[in-house]
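Look over both lines:
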Amino acid sequence: MRLDKYLKVSRLIKRRTLAKEVAEQGRIEINGKTAKASSVVKAGDELRIRFGQKVVTARVESIRENAKKEEAAMMFTILSEERLAKVEPEFIDDAE
């Protein structure tokens, strides 16, 4: 199954278009490699998704073409959630 469709069906990301955009920005990895929206996801794969200041690592448990809310939660297992340190933008001092 395509990565963008899996993310939508599993409800890790609410909309397929948003999942596609996140993948295009290079914020999703499958088994340690940067993934495109068209990448194939299979059971046992490990997904690492960066949502702003949070990184979620999940293992794909099953693949379904469509799923109800209760079934969607069983499609993956959250392995870890980590917060990234907030990076303050550097300001250029023009007063030199």
In short: The helical segments are 3-9, 16-24, 69-72. The chain has one domain: 3-83.
